[in-house]
Amino acid sequence: MFFEARRRHAVILLLGAISIILVRAQSPQELSSAAATAMKRRDYSRAEVYYEKLLQAAPNAAEIYSNLGLARYLQKKIDPAEKAFEDALLRNSDLFVPNFFLGRIYFETGRYHKALPLLKNALELQPQQETGRRFLAAVLVGLKRFDEAIFQYKGLLENNQKDIESLYSLGLVYMDLGQKAFDQLANYKDSGFISLVTAEFYSDRPDWQAVTIRNYRQAVTASPKVPGLRIALGNYLLKVEEWEAAKQALEEELKLDPFSYEARFGISVFHLFKGDTRAALHELNEAATIRPQFFDPLPPMPVKIVPQRLATDHAKLEQEANQGSFGAAYLLTELSARLGRGEQTVWWRTLAETRRDKLIDEYHSTKEMPGKSPGYDGRSLGLQHIHEKRYEDGLRLLLDRRAEIVTDSEIRNALVRTLFQLGRFEELINLLESVELNDDPEMFYVLGASYKNLALKTLEKIVEVNPESVRAHQLLGDALFAQDLFQQAAREYETAVKIEPRNPPLLFSLGTAYFNQLEFERATENYQRVLELDPFHAEAHLMQGSCLLRLGRPEEAIPLLRKALELEPELIRAHVPMGRALAALDRTEEAIGHFELGAHTDEDGSVHYQLFNLYRKLGKKEKAKDALRTSQKLRRAIEGQRELSQRTPKK
């Protein structure tokens, strides 16, 4: 065996020597051909040798330096590749490959300022090169030149509407811009808009009802004349079935704004719950007369508030519907759907939509736009239209006066609120680009909310254009998860898992979305599926153990947490749940050991507080005192951070 190994080694040396001799013997044309062949075969190391040899014959050939750089880059020899690309550009700055790949190297190493001119040059040389444009956009994001980045992503999407990478990146840019706008609200602590953002942040979390209601009320108290705040409060109170409080909030909105069709719709919901069908009909018809577009498409009524009395009043509702009542046809649509009467549902829905469309036609035909007569006042008329919820007419008049928004806050507020109400977020953002927002927190709120809405619309397109794509649903789930929208993220991960049920990363993401909603049973089911597919997934062992610990099963959690640490000893944060599991079983000394190993991961003082209790239990007074002091220091720091973050939480 020894002699056989020696023989193979000798053959290898001989072949290497022959290849070197052959290389030395080749002409530049032969070397160039051999290098191209090696690149085609993906034998990049041999191509590198040929290109280096070629440079001896042509030391100033920019193309050879470019090809050498590419051969090195494809071997992940980044520093030598960078040098070769730089040498190429010194000799010819108009080559695409060195501009693109050197720009990419600079981007990947965080040197955005150096990457920018190179990627711009690459794009000028090859305007249709989508990868180059994508890197250019990413560099612009890194430089916080967001408007330019958005322009590049939109250009990519014009060429390919199904480009999920660009949709994802554009959505994240909008998310970042929205958060930056919300962050400015910290400068306006007493405006009420911080409370509004906080309320909206917690409104989907069932365990945070009291916090949500309190913050909505604080927003109303701080900004009592801002329209819509009481509607947000009233709608949330309806959702959590605080009926009388909801009615009071919505009636207060009507006192402020008698044309509030949303308040009337909410009050109709209250009357339905109370069984007062006639009062509900009155409010629905009033709402539809004010703004029939609100009912296009027909909004669903909450299931719980369609009482049995509607069935009792069926004959009266039919009579009113046949006499032209939109509200009656709408309620009969809802009632038929609840009772599972398909044909009747279609009939009444068609009638309701017909009544609504007639109201829309009447809405457009009344109040024709006046000519500009001597007494014409476009400003007053535009504001009046918007006050009466004739948004489109008001916008046509006031958008002609958009130059006045800098000096006329009434026009500015009317335009901004209307565009926001209509969901015309890009127009709103463009409008506010010309305005100084430093004196108006409402504008920061609307700007932030517009960017967030635009982000979600953009991200939702990922799955609209790729409904069967696992990656599309996963990207949308990741983006929603990053915004703490765990319920929505879980829905996307669930869809992806249905398409690809044996995908451990997807199952892990789904489990973690459930974990963050405190749904530990559902989380543990998914972590278990991950471990069945990948028994060496350390994070899944950690999270499964953490779930079992939260479910009060520490003895089952310990082996999982121990396995996580065996598989990945640097997974330091696993020591904390291990310490908690051991402490729950009165294994105090072992618990202290793990808490000490994980103590530097303590962010809120809880780990050191547990150490304080365990040290005190063992009579270690000095250690207990030090742990308590550290715990208190961390708690004070986190309380300060929490106070700041709750002023402007992610929406």
Q: Rg, please? A: 33 Å
The number of helical runs is 35
The H-level CATH homologous superfamily of the domain at 189-363, spelled out, is Tetratricopeptide repeat domain
Strand percentage lies at under 5%
CATH class of the domain at 189-363: Mainly Alpha
Characterization of this structure:
With 651 residues, this protein is mainly alpha-helical. The protein has a domain at 189-363: Serine Threonine Protein Phosphatase 5, Tetratricopeptide repeat (Alpha Horseshoe). It contains 35 helices and no strands. The protein starts with a helix and ends with a helix. The model is unreliable at 9-23 and 644-651 (pLDDT under 50).
